[in-house]
TrEMBL record:
InterPro entries: DUF7437. It comes from Halomicrobium zhouii. It holds the Pfam family DUF7437. Residues 117-178 form the DUF7437 domain. This is DUF7437 domain-containing protein.
Amino acid sequence: MSNAPSPTQPPDAGHTAHRFFVVQELLGTPDLARFYTDLLVNSPTTVTAARERQGFSKSTAYKYANTLAELGVAEELDEYEDGSSLWRADPVSGDWTDETTLELGPAIIAVYGATGVDDDLELFVDRHGKAALAPAVMATLAYLQGETTRRGVADELGVPAVEAIAVTQAIERIVTVVKDHDPTLSDIAFEVDVHDRAIEQGPYQRADA
C-alpha cells in the first residue's frame, strides 16, 4: 500500500474548471455567445425578445437558452412578460495564463459572438485569425481609457492603421454596451466617448436604452 499523500485540490478548483469550460464553449460557438450576450445585457428578458433582436429562429433561440441553462450561466425565472417567461443570464469570466495572464470575460465573449454579424470583425478574423481578437480587445480598452491612440493600437497589433481603426470601432461599439455587465472591467473608466449613433450600429442593443 502506498504511503504517498492523496492529491488535493483547492476548494474552488471545480468551480474554476467549470468557468473555464463555459468560457471555452462560448468562445467556440459565436452564435451562442451572441445570444448569451444579448440575454446578459438585457436581463431579465424573454427568449422571444432576444431572438428578435438577434435574428435567430424560435427553435434556435430556445436551444441556446437551454444550453446556457445547462452551462449554469442563465436561468428561466418564475416571472413573465407578455405571457412569456423571463430569463436572466449571469456574467462568467476566467483567467487564461500562458506567458501572460489574460482575463476572459463577457466583453471578449461578446466580441467573439459578433464575428458572424459584423463585417469588420469578420474581415479581421479572416486576415489574422480568431486568436488575434483578444489582443485587439485589450488594445481597444487601452484606447478607450485614453492610454493610446488608434495608430498606437495599429503598432501594438502589427496591422495597418486602416485595419486598426475599423476593428477598434467595431469593438468599442460592443464593449461600451457590455462594460457594466463585465466584472473584469469594473475598475476601468473610459475616457473616450462612443457616440450613441455608433452604438446603434453595433450588434448589441439595450432594450431600455
